[in-house]
Amino acid sequence: MSSRGDDSSTGSTIAEAREAALRLLARREHSAVELKTKLARKGWPEEHIDQVIPALAEAGLQSDCRFAESFARQRAGRCYGPRRIHAELAQRGVDSGLAAQAIESLEIDFAELAANFYKKKYGNQRDELNFGERAKRSQVMYRRGFDSEHLRGLI
Questions:
Q1: Could you state, in order of their start, the residue ranges of all structural domains in the chain?
Q2: Nearest to residue 28, comparing CAs of 57, 70, 86, 87?
Q3: CATH number for the 7-58 domain, one of 1.25.40, 1.10.10, 1.10.540, 1.25.10?
Q4: Domain 64-105 adopts which CATH fold?
Q5: What is the DSSP-derived secondary structure letter of residue 1?
Q6: Which of 3, 75, 108, 151 has an alpha carbon 20 to 30 Å from 40's alpha carbon atom?
Q7: 123 or 59, which is more confident?
Q8: pLDDT, tens only, 55-75
Q9: Structural contact between residues 111 and 147, judged by C-beta atoms closer than 8 angstroms
Q10: CB 31, CB 94: distance < 8 Å
Q11: What DSSP line would sit under 7-54, residue for residue?
Q12: What are phi and psi of 152, to 5 degrees?
């Protein structure tokens, strides 16, 4: 096996970089940016990475769209709201339009999701809450990515 920086075997190094990328993709979907970051961290030359990732995308082995849908579904399953999901997708290098499309494709009622999370966390307490407790609960819900429209009637 040649060293990753060896230019005399460019073909095999690109093939090895492709194999490394495929091993990462075999575990889970990755955005192109995530894949590039992980390969660079493992020491693969940037010029090889820049050839491998578009080739994988063209072959249908890497897809930001598929990654965004999978990630959004997984995060919504853990009771995260649309704003948090959108922000996390942006952190992972997914285009804003693609992130919005992935969230929309979930067909989830985020107000209902917020209500379910709120009941799981705080129970069915309908006591009069003081301002400080209401603010604290609101902040928890905002950090989870829910908007004020999702919280109406909850707090």
A1: 7-58, 64-105, 110-151
A2: 70
A3: 1.10.10
A4: Arc Repressor Mutant, subunit A (1.10.10)
A5: -
A6: 75
A7: 59
A8: 999 999 999 999 999 999 999
A9: no
A10: yes
A11: GGGHHHHHHHHHHHHHHHHHHS---HHHHHHHHHHTT--HHHHHHHHH
A12: -55, 130
